Queue: 3 jobs
Job 1
Amino acid sequence: MGARTILWASLALAPVVFLLKWVFDVGDSVLFVVAALALVPLAWLIGEATEHAGEHTGPGIGGFLNATFGNAPELIIALIAVNSGLPNVVRGSLTGSVVSNILLVLGAALFFGRDGTIDRRSLLLQLGLVTLATFAFLIPSIPGWHGDPERHSLAILTIPVAVVLLLIYLALIADNLRRHRRLHTESDYEPSGEGWSLTLSLGTLAVATLATALVSEVLVHALDHFAETVNLSEFFISVVIVAIVGNAAEHGGAIVIARRGKMRLATEIAISSSAQVAMLVAPAVALLSFVVRPPLPLTFRPIELIAMGASAVFVGIVIRDGRVRRWEGVMLITVYAAFALAFLIVGDR
């Protein structure tokens, strides 16, 4: 049985999750594991649909589509956690998403892909956005290092920071997408005709994203019990496990696409997703938290800010020549492992 056949069959795990929860009422630890496994084929499906959409739109817009659809579950996971009174889980998963996409996803894509050229300008712009967001997060974070980091005044202080980041992101990304569309048009590239239509690709993306969001909700509600069972800190579970699972779409999609030699699209997926979490998802969660309650201050810990900022700078240095190599992928994965170990050591706030 081929890998693709197994992945298609594994899509059945998504309804199994809901049967286990609502019909058989199994324990939270089992639910957490099955939900995590169910996200893997959904991630592959999102990657497949993105690749087919990229045939019609070009790699830049294709990467943006994957990041947008892939980060929708991350936004939903965060809002569910906010409403469940888990602010540290929210900030941890946001930090983990930024760091894992920049280092782990990109590293895996480089390792499983091929040496080649990338869109240096586009990627450096998005890494710059991650760095900008990290500095902006210092505004509410520094006061949060003293006293209660959840106090309402810091949530209020977060509002202008979130609004400014959102406006900057939307303006710069709109310009970047126009550039990608122009380059794709000028390339005179024509789809092979053997892939999916753009309508089918986008429809599949939407359905797979919805399923991912529903499975992710089960995952979040089972997190506390799972953390107690495996005796790991809530912070480590959220910054590593939830972040990786919540971004399974980007992880799977980038690797699948990289293995087919489409390095521009694969690198766009990894880094644009990271920039989108920092500049769009985190601010959006902070603003929407005033609706779902309680309000969420973007008061990150020093280790979280260091990890986000250092990752962006390090990857910027790696890709500055506009080429990627397999050994650089190994290096990025190693750096991610070092940060994961640091997250394990620092424990909860």
Note: The longest strand covers residues 116-117.
Job 2
Amino acid sequence: MAELSLAGLLLLALTAFLVGFSKAGFPGMGILAVPLAAIAVAVDTHEGAARYSSGFLLPMLVAGDVLAVLYWRRKANWKALVKLIPAAVIGVVVGLLLMDSKILWNDRILFPVIGGIVLLMVAVAYIRKFAAAQSGDVRVPQGWWFPAAMGLTGGITTLLGNAAGPIMSLYLLAMRLPKEEFLGTGAWYFLLLNLFKVPFMYKLGLINGTSLPINLMLLPVIIVSGVTGIVLAKRLSEKSFTWVVEGLVIVGAVIVAIKPWLVFK
């Protein structure tokens, strides 16, 4: 692809800020970075904008994950995490096969489908939450199918469009984890999953000699925004944190669904 223009670089800088801020303190907000990265690429070329933007975005996500793990590493709930990883790995492989064969790889179809899936999950989660409030049964989901389904869906969507944030947030909300456990578990999950994706994205040519120097240039932005996210998240109460995450999940799902209309005229 052509080298990015100044406008494209500025948009990627904003993308980097959102990545650091969300990874370290406000999970779910990072989904805003997905269409921004695609728009940054689309400024210079409309062809395959979402596909190429994944190569710019993934190293930024890994940098944000490393920062989050460094701070929240001791807060992770490994029992909840281990249930997700096997299905997520399978999901990444399935996503790779879909991307490599170009099945479903149509920006105008793929992202509305992903956004629709997440919104459906949100609706189911709220129905379940309402039913639990009425019955007084507030148990977390215990069946093996729940983490398997969330992990598989998250793995596929993260490979195809770096759009697993809302899905992971829904899972952790369902587990009713305290704020710091929520952040620590999410940090480890995404670091492991995104590192697993790197060789595949390199093989596809989406991480390359053009994207990596730009990622390195944007690293200070990720660090500053990540520290800001940590400071603000620590000041939020548990209840406020839950409300913020729930709201970001819904906003994120809508943004993913309308992404093609944001990127393309």
Note: The radius of gyration is 17 Å.
Job 3
Amino acid sequence: MKFNAGVQLYNYMETFYCCTVTSAQEFESVVSEHMLVYVISGELDVLLHDRRRHLQRGQAYFIRKDFKAHKIEYPSKDGTPFKGLFLQLKTPMLKKVMREYQLGNDTGKRYSSRSPYIMLPDHPLLKGMFRSLESYFDTGQYPSEQLMTAKITEVILTLVEAVPMLKSVLFDFAEPWKIDLGEYMEENYTNDLDLEGFAHYTGRSLTAFKKDFMSVFHSSPGKWLVKRRLKEARHLIQDNGEKPMDVYIQVGFKNLSHFSTAFKREYGVAPTRMLSQARC
């Protein structure tokens, strides 16, 4: 169990998590395995580009692996803290269940969208599944490893039964899996990843990543990332009136001085000066 200001997190086997927050908290990270998210109480906003999906008590979504999860968790209007369940569905376990239960992804109905988020329906099987998962943390006693393995198996089978089209996502183990590079970079350019990291999460070797990147963007990854981050920074400063010291990390820079130098080189004016001009 870990505590931060306003956050209480239970973590079991780096697979099963229960998070409670008493004040608004924003989280952003790359998800390396498929994950289920269920809102027990409070509210949750899931962000993707300029779209925002709002979830309340009893709602759930599925997030694909190798995408950036950007969410805001906060108490409901009556002050009830946010409480959510997060369950990773790891590749070895999915392969084991597929093999033992002779499951395949040839359902005939497939998810055509490459959106990382898939909203789950209000299905009685899913409701019962999430209630049973919640009970583990209510008792204050972690399940055994054997019981947890059985529970995750039950979760996978329940998902397949309630949402058959998820089979095409859960049991897609093709490697390397080349996702759309342009779409991925536009969604994830602010991530704190080196080029090897971006290559990995787009299903490419570093050499293939650089080659494909040049074909899509007609620029090297390093130059494109700097320009794209600066463009977003200018928007946040000039149009939204945000302070440079609040913006540079948000858009993916690690150092304020480096950000300010690159910004002035690109736009001919320091970010603080642009903010002053925007306020006039």
Note: The mean pLDDT is 87.
